[in-house]
Amino acid sequence: MIASASRLPQIARLNRRVRLPLLVGLCLAGILAAAALGILASTPRISLAGLWDVLRGGGTPLDRVLITELRVPRFVLGALGGAMLALSGALLQDAMRNPLAGPELLGVTAGATIVVAAITILHLSVLLVLIPWLALAGGLLAGGLVIILMRRTDDPIRLVLVGAALTALLNAAVIVLMSYGTQSDIGVLFLFLVGSLANRTWIQVQLILPWALLGIPLALLTARALNVLQLGEDVARGLGLPVLRVRVLVLVLSAALVAAVVAVSGPIAFVALLAPHLVRRALDTSDARVVLPCCALVGAALLTGADVLARLTFDPLELPVGIWTTLLGGPLLLLLLRRHLRASRGDA
Question: What is the pLDDT of residue 193?
Answer without folding.
Answer: 84
